Amino acid sequence: MRALILVDVQNDFCPGGALAVPDGDAVVEPINRLAREAPFVVATRDCHPEDHGSFAEQGGPWPVHCVDGSVGAELHPRLERDLVDVVLDKGQAPDREGYSGFEATELERLLREHDVDTVDIAGLALDYCVKATALDARRAGLNVVVHRGATRAVEVKPGDAERAVDELRAAGVEIVE
Ligand SMILES: [Zn+2]
Question: Is 12 considered catalytic here?
């Protein structure tokens, strides 16, 4: 069984959001196309308490984003919700990074319950949460395909996207456009 994992396709990561990824909303249409073909679709949401350790005011690297219950934490309105089987929130522990969809969530158990052996991954952002989720999927023994055209990168440092792709390939992740 194959599953599609949609990483953090949320308002705060799209233009106009608190931590907008450049061109972030460009992933929505390709993701809808992938989701129409996928037998099982899981969407993760970054979903933080107000005092999350990743926020600048707590000494973390990011502005306040994706606070639980806020509009910014909601899935992008053009993402076709009917195509999503399960929504999983991550990043809820104040003292943990929460980049990966596997970190302190039910994701691995859920995939095992559905006899998933291969995951397709798309979403935001390639050089953070998509990368971390894909690497953890490999650690969980899954075949992993990242659909690069359905991701966008933050690129805090220029070249971060390419470095992420190199790291993913080295871990055995297949990259497709
Ligand atoms: Zn976050």
Answer: no
132 CA to centre of ligand 1 in angstroms: 12
Domains of the chain (ranges, CATH numbers)? 2-121+130-176 (3.40.50.850)
Q: Is 131 a catalytic residue?
A: no
| pLDDT tens digits along 65-116 | 999 999 999 999 999 999 999 999 999 999 888 999 999 999 999 999 999 9
Spatial contact of 168 and 176, defined as CB atoms under 8 Å apart: no
Question: What b/e string do you get for 147-168 counting C-beta neighbours within 10 Å, with b at 16 or more?
Answer: bbebbbbbbeeeebbeebbeeb
Q: Describe the strand order of the beta sheet including 118-124 as a list of residue ranges.
A: 86-90, 41-46, 2-7, 118-124, 143-152, 174-176
How remote is the CA of residue 51 from the centroid of ligand 1, in Å? 12
Element (H or E) spanning 119, and its range?
strand 118-124
**Is 46 one of the catalytic residues?**
no
Catalytic, out of 66, 127, 129, 136:
129
Distance 135 CA to ligand 1 centre (A): 17
pTM attached to this predicted model: 0.97
